Structure formats: structure tokens, C-alpha cells
Amino acid sequence: MSGAWTGRRFAILMPWGRVGSNLVVGVFNEAAGVPLLNEPTTRIRGTAAAVGPFAADREQLDFLAAFPAPADFVNGDPAVGVAGVKLTHTSFLSPMGAYEALAAGGYRIAAMDRRDHLRAAVSQLRAEQRRADKGGRRGAWAVKAGERKPGPTALDPALLLHRAGAFEIRSRAMHDYLAALIPAERVIHVEYADLSADPEGTIRGIADHVGVALPDRFALPHRKATSDDLREDVLNYDEVRAAAAGTPFERFLDD
Fold first, then answer.
1. 8 A C-beta contact, residue 34 and residue 75
2. Is residue 2 part of a domain?
3. pLDDT tens digits, residue range 69-80?
4. CATH number for the domain including 66?
5. Spatial CB neighbours of 147, under 8 Å, sequence gap ≥ 6
């Protein structure tokens, strides 16, 4: 890449994870040839203990301002004139600065979320267990289209409800910052339930918004890892149900 980037830049933004972002990224990469940088601000946040929080914060903001730089894509510049990055709200050391950088940089945003915070937490804990079973391999976070869905798992009810609460807090914060700092016309809001019900149509809507040209037909590289009915995935469902009774997450339970 020579000189400053003159193409369009976009971000797949999520509160934390488990919102279907791997499916969108996979389609953009495989069907449209658009590479996305995967959670660089998460990697930078992980250096804060070594370099100090200020230095890591500065690096995050500098990255968002300069993206895409020559080193961001090992295979060279995206020939399609659009460059994307996947980000989590949780990773930002100074959220206000990060959203201001996204606004100043003209990023178009696909804000992916999951209203059912309990299922998001179930999915995350099951993914963590799957990753541990596979020796920590990062690719274990997503289930490929041809793979079997992971079997049922026993989950710690207290940890599950804590994670659901954390998802809710992060979701609220992401939408608050977006509404305050990013022009509404630059943001498309994507709900996991809609992506699950109509993946092709929802992904095409994201692509149209961020400027990615998809072919008329494309394959879905990943499948859902969590069932619609939690009783199929949670071995100790009755225990979880009892723990969630009377909490804000009781409404997400399967009767």
C-alpha cells in the first residue's frame, strides 16, 4: 500500500462475542475475497500489563486512525477497495476515544448483538469448553458447516448468570456509545435472531451497508453451535432454570 488509504473502511463491532460474527467474516473472506483483521484491539489490550495501560490505549487509537496499514494484510491490499476489521467493545481501553476514532475515520459499522444474553452466555461457555477440549486452538470458537454440533454440556449456573449479566452490560454500553458518537446512517444494527433466521439475507444486508460486493450465491462456512432449545445443550438445565428464577434472565428460559 502506498500513501494513505483511499478506499472504504468498515468494522464488524460486537459487545463481546457469540453474535454470529465468524459467519459474516467467513462469507466476506471466502465469497467476496475481502480480508478482515481479526480483533486487533483485543490483542493490543493484552499487552497492557507489559507496556502499561496508557501505551496500549494509545496503540489502539493509533491503529484505528491508521487502519489499514501495509502490515495489516499479509496478502497485500484488498483489491476491492474496501478494508474491514472485527472489533469488540470489551477490548477498548478508552471506549470514548475508540468510538471517536471510528467516527473520524469514516468507518461504516455493522453492530452485531444478541438480545438473548442468556443464550449468548451459554454459547460462550460451551465454546470455551470446546476450545479447551481442542487444546486451545482458536478456530474452535466456530463450528464449520460440515462439523457436528457440539454435544450437551453441564454449566455452572452462577457463572452462567454472571456472564449473561456481563453481556447485558456490554451490549448496553456499545449501543450507548454508538448512538452518541457515530452518525446513524453509518450504522447497521444486526440482531443474532435475524441472522439465524435468514443468514443469506442478513449477510447481504450487511454487505450492502459496508460496501462489500457478494456474488449472487454463496456458501455458509459455519453453522450454529447452540440449539434454539437450551434443554438440548445444557445437561443440568433444571439446575440452571432454578438459579435463573426471579432474575432478569428468567424470560429467556425454555418452559
1. no
2. no
3. 877 764 444 455
4. 3.40.50.300
5. 223
